[in-house]
Amino acid sequence: MPTLFKNGTLITAEGAYRADILVVADKIVQIAAEIAPSETTEIVDCTDRWLLPGGVDVHTHFDLPVSGTRSSDDFFSGGRAAAFGGTTTHIDFAIQSKGGSLQAAYETWRAKAEGRAAIDYGLHMTIIELNEAVAAEIPRVRDLGITSLKLLMAYKGSVMVDDATLFRVMQIAAEHDLLVMTHCENGDAIAQLQADFMAQGKRAPRYHALSRPAILEAEATTRALALAETAGCALYVVHITCEGAVEALRKARARGMRAMGETCIQYLHLTVDALDKPGFEGAKYVCSPPLRTAHDVNVLRTALRDGSLQALSTDHCPFWFEGGVAGRPAGKELGRDAFTKIPNGVPAVEERLKLSAELLEASRWVAVNCTQPARIFGLYPRKGALVIGADADIVVWNPQTQGVISAQRHHMQVDYSVFEGMAHRGAPERVYLRGALIVDGDQWLGKAGQGLYLPRQSSVWL
Predict the structure, then answer these.
(1) What is the pTM of this model?
(2) pLDDT score of 180
(3) In angstroms, rounded to a whole number, what is the distance separating the alpha carbons of residues 77 and 54?
(4) 159 phi and psi, to 5 degrees?
(5) Can you tell me the distance from the alpha carbon of 425 to that of 419, in angstroms, rounded to the nearest whole number?
(6) What is the mean pLDDT of residues 351-361?
(7) What is the maximal distance between C-alpha atoms in the chain?
(8) Among residues 254, 252, 263, which one has the least CA distance to residue 224?
(9) Rounded distance, CA 231 to CA 225, Å?
(10) pLDDT in tens, 54-110
């Protein structure tokens, strides 16, 4: 049965206008000022509502094994929570294991999603080791529908790569039109600072941030940009948190480099002061890179508004605050006696659209949450835009709804919210995935396994 969305205001990356949208099966087939329904058409009255493309979150970590445990949301619970927040597509990370192949990483993450994915998804490939066999595999990731490679410049002794590995992967990526993504922190210096603090008996959560100062993020960002420019590859810097990293990216783009960057919703609202909460409460806010200053928060908001940053994501990687009980995997309590053992990550996938709506003009809000992420990562125009021929991923948004964020009401599989008590204006009322209604107010109508794997095209430089 066709579905007609009538009387809504379409919010696009270019502007806003009044229009109707006709959906047949899973595609948008017509957009016009006035569309007359047939006798068999289901009508969705969108008077005083906004119509948005489903959100595209290009940085999530569902079912991620880390620090002797795993993130608490899997491809079903995390995808369902994303949908309640208006996100219908996400891109996760297939992570190479020590001594393992890229093909094996791909198969492992596809298996995690099989029969579980609640929304559509893609994969990035994370490389942690490089040898001749892996180097030969890199061009073939395109055959798996993957066009982006992530490398981490932090977490020494675990997933960190050295500059030689990073540069060689960049060279291969440039040759085969692959986008390189970097986690930019100076892992060597961080490892030494962590060892120093531990030797001094400084073990509280606040020392997580102190061991990862902003200057080390700025330095690594500058270094990654220099290596990518030399190799001739396009670079996307993930989860930028501070002024120094933003300025490095601005300068690279000003000289014509194909460089892009994202920040995450937590860095637009929270500051490092949260790690000083009484007792062990600060552990809830431990993520990497860490939260920064109020000044950095304002810099990031401005950078999203003026185009210096191109996307807003979540780096969703939740862990129970009180894990290891009632069937829960271990969580933040692992680091109660040492900040170095606190699993890094926060729950955020459900709150991105709600908590960024009032920070940005409406079309820019859709651009950084939906359209530009889809374009950068080879999903546009199927995803990220309300255009004829696109998947009918449609969010009916009430811009007047007022609410307060609370762990008592969210759908993420975790026992706290880092945004607890924050007020917001605007929220999804209905969320459609490829034409099917999956969220209706507080009701979940979707099912596990409905999410499709999305092979991606080459990235677009914005």
Answers:
(1) 0.98
(2) 98
(3) 18
(4) -110, 5
(5) 14
(6) 98
(7) 75
(8) 252
(9) 10
(10) 999 999 999 999 988 999 999 999 999 999 999 999 999 999 999 999 999 999 999
The crossing angle, in degrees rounded to 10, of helices 214-231 and 163-175 is 40
pLDDT of residue 67: 83
Strands 235-237, 55-57: parallel, antiparallel or unpaired by DSSP? Answer: unpaired
- What domains lie within the chain, and their CATH numbers? 3-53+381-401+423-444 (2.30.40.10), 55-373 (3.20.20.140)
Residues 361-385 have a mean pLDDT of 98
For 33-46, how does the pLDDT look when each residue is reduced to its tens digit (9 = 90+)? 999 999 999 999 99
What does the chain come to in residues?
462
- Identity of the amino acid at 441: G
